[in-house]
Specification:
CATH architecture of the domain at 38-83: 2-Layer Sandwich
Radius of gyration: 15 Å
Order of helices and strands: HEEH
Number of helices: 2
CATH class of the domain at 38-83: Alpha Beta
Shape: globular
Oligomer: single chain
CATH superfamily of the domain at 38-83: Guanylate Kinase phosphate binding domain
Largest sheet: 2 strands, parallel
Number of strands: 2
CATH topology of the domain at 38-83: Guanylate Kinase phosphate binding domain
Length: about 80
């Protein structure tokens, strides 16, 4: 059986521009059409917005947990945004 190589799709844009909404809708469309896909969620220390849900839109974590994950090499990359 031939192994299928994964395709990575990344959405880039300004904060709150709808990147996650677009990714979630694409994930739903692929799933509806029986196309396997995985939606990767990011960790963030910012407060949750009123229309966001834990472990659906992001992994909302404390600064302590985020720092712990950095120290133990659990992120491929991370950034500080707006101080």
């Amino acid at each position: 059986m031939k192994k299928i190589k994964p395709i990575i799709i990344a959405f880039l844009g300004k904060s709150a521009s709808g990147k996650n909404t677009l990714a979630i809708e694409l994930h739903k469309l692929l799933k509806k059409n029986n196309i396997p896909s995985k939606l990767l969620l990011h960790d963030t220390t910012r407060p949750r917005r009123k229309d966001e849900y834990q472990d659906i839109d992001y992994h909302f974590v404390s600064n302590k947990v985020f720092g712990h994950n950095i120290i133990f090499g659990r992120y491929l990359e991370y950034t500080k945004f707006n101080n």
